[in-house]
Write a structure and sequence with these properties.
It is a single chain. With 484 residues, the protein is mainly alpha-helical. It has helices at residues 21-26, 39-68, 72-94, 115-122, 126-151, 160-183, 195-214, 217-221, 223-238, 244-248, 267-294, 301-317, 330-339, 344-359, 361-367, 372-395, 404-415, 417-420, 430-436, 439-455, 474-483; strands at 108-110, 326-328. A two-stranded antiparallel ribbon has the order 1-2. Residues 1-25 and 464-484 have low confidence and may be disordered.
């Protein structure tokens, strides 16, 4: 078990992990989420978060740029802009202001959910295509910001049987990403799936596990970062480390506002990206509930409202600096679960590093040295940690009672379709694929609907039924009581 991080004295006494967070805060002692670490530990822990999510941030612009007809230099500019805007969105989430920000160790970055529709919108249209994409993102994000106070009320429909299912799906849905990285990341490359790549991923996985077992204290908490560094050093003589990014990187670069021209607004593009925004808001809600449970600070309606506002505001600002729609990065939830470092200021430090990487491309290229097979080996542990947290939640959901096991079975089954059978929905309209191709979204919807059908409509729960609040108000009310 990872050691609980030693917080600074100015954060008061750190509560015991099993201590009720509400009681802790009421007694005047800071919750670990609001605690800080010494500067060096803050930086290295933040850098570990950046290393875990770097590939996920730069991948969407790497796909969208060439698809719309941008040059390699312009695509590289998009990548830097995505790092910069991910840093801004992460700071909005972790530090926040007014009623904006979840104020949890919550990382934001470019959403993969928008890649397919963005490619469809801007394909072969060059700068005009990017301008239309940015215009659609701005409108969809502002609509999401307006809807946030209403959308957050969905928290009452997330009892343990639903949250456990969704958290499990988040982890399981991310594992194919780790497997793809382990093979090399590019299915068209000649060495994709080679024994060298997979062996390198396996070596990194073993290194991370060994470090977690052998190290203690803070070094154990940054085992992922140390594993990535050691794995990269091993990969150099193996020949799978690419130094081209450093040689071609500029020392300094700023994402000039509206570099590709003023945003353009087309109805079809706006509708498409609005659907993507609803998908992102659904996934972010599930991610906040998962993270709240992991850090022992349950995400209530106000927390989710603030988180969704930060998501949507960050997404609305992002196109100004040539970035795309931002949403939660579930892989970093796995990192929090694994390291037990719950401070939101650690993730805020990661946000600051992301902004720096966006402004200093040569620094960003150093992170890019980590070969994808190395990142894939570490990713198996990270994403598996999320799934394990979901299973732990389901263990307390009393699956032997009522139809809870059936709810989990159906939701997980539907949620796994895009993973197990990627072409399952190939005959459906492309607009629907934005939702259907997200196992997290479809599984979440199925779990919510079945929970309502089996546990609420037409029946009155018994007072002693698991998940029922005192007074027999059922799982929904129990969730509200727990949240407050």
């Amino acid at each position: 078990m990872a050691a609980t991080p030693r917080f600074r004295d100015d954060a008061s006494a750190t509560p015991h992990p099993d201590e009720d967070p509400t009681t802790t805060e009421a007694s005047g002692r800071k919750h670990p989420v609001d605690g800080t670490l010494p500067p060096l530990k803050m930086f290295t822990s933040g850098l570990q978060h950046v290393a875990a999510m770097y590939a996920g941030v730069v991948a969407p612009p790497m796909i969208v740029g060439p698809a719309v007809g941008l040059s390699p230099q312009e695509t590289a500019f998009l990548m830097g802009a995505s790092l910069f805007t991910a840093g801004i969105a992460t700071l909005l989430q972790t530090l926040g202001f007014w009623r904006i920000g979840a104020r949890l160790p919550f990382v934001n970055g470019v959403s993969f959910a928008g890649v397919t529709p963005m490619v469809a919108i801007g394909k072969d249209r060059g700068h005009d295509g990017i301008a239309v994409i940015f215009g659609a993102i701005i409108v969809a994000s502002l609509l999401g910001f307006v809807l946030a106070p209403y959308f957050c009320k969905l928290v009452r429909f997330f009892p343990p049987v639903v949250t456990g299912t969704v958290i499990t799906l988040i982890g399981v849905s991310l594992l194919p990403v780790a497997f793809n990285w382990s093979q090399g990341g590019n299915a068209t490359a000649h060495d994709y799936g080679s024994t060298t790549n997979i062996t390198m991923a396996a070596v990194t996985l073993v290194i991370v596990l060994a470090l977690r077992k052998l190290l203690r204290g803070f070094l154990q908490q940054i085992a992922i970062l140390l594993g990535l560094i050691i794995g990269t050093l091993i990969a150099i003589p193996v020949g799978i480390t690419d130094f081209g990014a450093i040689r071609n990187a500029d020392a300094i670069g700023f994402p000039t506002p509206f570099h590709f021209g003023a945003p353009q607004f087309e109805i079809a593009a706006i509708v498409s990206m609005s659907i993507v925004m609803l998908v992102c808001m659904t996934e972010s809600t599930a991610d906040m509930l998962a993270l709240g449970k992991i850090v022992d600070r349950p995400a209530d309606e106000r927390t989710i409202e603030g988180g969704l506002r930060a998501d949507t505001l960050g997404s609305a600002i992002s196109p100004l600096f040539n970035g795309f729609m931002c949403s939660a990065f579930a892989q970093n939830i796995g990192l929090v679960a694994m390291t037990k470092v719950r401070s939101r200021f650690v993730v805020a430090a990661g946000g600051g590093i992301l902004i720096l990487l966006g402004l200093v491309p040569v620094a960003a290229s150093v992170i890019a040295l980590v070969p994808l097979p190395v990142l894939g080996g570490a990713g198996i542990v990270l994403f598996g940690s999320v799934a394990a947290s979901g299973i732990q939640t389901l263990a307390g959901a009393a699956l032997e009672k009522g139809e809870n096991a059936l709810i989990v079975a159906a939701a997980v089954g539907v949620g796994l379709i895009p993973i197990a059978a990627p072409d399952f929905y190939h005959a459906f309209p492309k607009d629907l694929l934005v939702v259907l191709d997200s196992g997290i979204s479809t599984g979440c919807v199925v779990a919510i609907v079945l929970n309502l059908a089996f546990n609420h409509l037409g029946r009155k729960p018994e007072p002693d039924e698991p998940g029922t609040a005192p007074g027999g108000h059922g799982p929904v009310k129990a969730m509200e009581v727990a949240a407050h």
